[in-house]
Design a protein that fits this description.
349 residues; alpha/beta; five-stranded mixed sheet; 10 helices; 10 strands; binds 5'-O-[(R)-(carboxyoxy)(hydroxy)phosphoryl]adenosine; binds zinc ion
Length: 349
């Protein structure tokens, strides 16, 4: 089945063509970062308008790159939530209109299910893919969750952030250090120059049991450290790098501790990491090292499939549509949509 995937939940327009037999045929991404950078965060109205401008040209681009005629599309998947409602509506409206015009099914896909399944795309490049069941660490700008995954649509929430998401904490730290949005990659780059022994930041919520996270206290600690090192309102480049390093180490350590605990609790040996923060090199290395010692395997998507993209939506939609799912007449987008509300496709259950 050949599926067109459209992702417009936030500030990236992602479009891809996925073929259940041949794999990813084409994948295009347009990032709105430059538009939102001067505001220090995503401006929802500007995001919607730009998705309107970019989605159709990107669809033409992936069709040309994939050598596929419009009439060869057999299904259209779009992100139906969670995300910015106006932005989601652009992808949903276009996706459903294109599907109706072609007389093929459409399906609204859960954004985090897309992230969660992205590592499976490696199967078409002979890469290792995780078998069910596994524990998933979903770490993005809006979510930090540990989920037990027993199959497509079979998700049990093990723990989540009670306040800021890990990616949000990276973005806020970047702002404190005068770095651009989105901050994760900038903080990570700056941290490379930092002295790992200079500061020891707190590892939130690791002493008490449980699998929930909290990053707002760490954010406050980071801000207090920045303030304490200001001289005439300025922090030196080395101090900034050392703070970035200490912040990153605290997040990485906390995530690793909770992942080990989740695997132990569920008696599982496979961890899948997905979402924007899973692009973080030190997080990947720490998980591989610590979990490797315990004979656990770690899986994550190719770097370009960690952050938002159309491929993960085309893939998740293809799996569900191939199992017979499609939109009903009352399909709608949702700003909030707990992943645990998803169910396995009926045909696959
Ligand atoms: O999954 P994603 O692209 O969008 C959401 O669904 O939120 O994740 C974006 C988040 C941002 O907060 C960004 O700062 C963070 O992922 N991020 C990183 C890295 N690359 C992206 N955080 C830490 N290290 C990175 N290398
Ligand atoms: Zn995302």
């Amino acid at each position: 089945m050949r599926v067109l995937g459209i992702e417009t939940s936030c500030d990236e327009t992602g479009v891809a063509l996925y073929d259940t037999e041949r794999g990813l045929l084409a994948d295009a991404l347009y990032s709105q970062i430059d538009i939102h950078a001067e505001y220090g965060g995503v401006v929802p109205e500007l995001a919607s308008r730009d998705h309107v401008r970019k989605t159709l040209p990107l669809i033409d681009q992936v069709l040309a790159e994939g050598g596929i005629a419009r009439g060869d599309i057999e299904g259209v998947a779009y992100t139906a939530g969670p995300g910015l409602v106006g932005a989601l509506m652009v992808g949903a409206t276009l996706g459903r209109a294109i599907a109706a015009g072609l007389g093929v099914p459409s399906l609204g896909v859960h954004h985090m299910e897309g992230h969660l399944l992205a590592p499976m795309l490696a199967q078409h490049e002979a890469g290792a893919v995780p078998e069910y069941p596994f524990v998933a660490l979903l770490v993005s700008g809006g979510h930090t969750q540990l989920v037990r995954v027993d199959g497509l649509g079979q998700y049990a929430l093990l723990g989540e952030s009670l306040d800021d998401a890990a990616g949000e904490a990276f973005d806020k730290t970047a702002k404190m250090l005068g770095l651009p949005y989105p901050g994760g990659p900038h903080v990570a780059r700056l941290a490379e120059q930092g002295d790992p022994a200079r500061f020891e930041f707190p590892r939130p919520m690791v002493k008490q049991g449980g699998l929930d996270f909290s990053f707002s206290g760490l954010k406050t600690h980071t801000l207090a450290t920045v303030r304490a090192h200001e001289v005439d309102g300025k922090v030196s480049d080395q101090d900034k790098a050392d703070i970035a390093r200490a912040f990153e180490a605290a997040v990485v350590d906390t995530l690793v501790i909770k992942c080990r605990r989740a695997l132990k609790q569920e008696n599982l040996t496979r961890l899948v990491m997905a979402g924007g923060v899973s692009a973080n090199v030190r997080l990947r290395a720490a998980l591989e090292e610590k979990l490797g010692k315990e004979r656990c395997e770690v899986f994550y998507p190719a770097p370009k499939l960690c952050t938002d993209n159309g491929a993960m939506i085309a893939y998740a939609g293809a799996l569900r549509m191939a199992a017979g799912e499609c939109d009903g007449p009352d399909a709608e987008v949702r700003a909030r949509w707990p992943m645990t509300e998803l169910t396995a496709p009926k045909a696959a259950a």
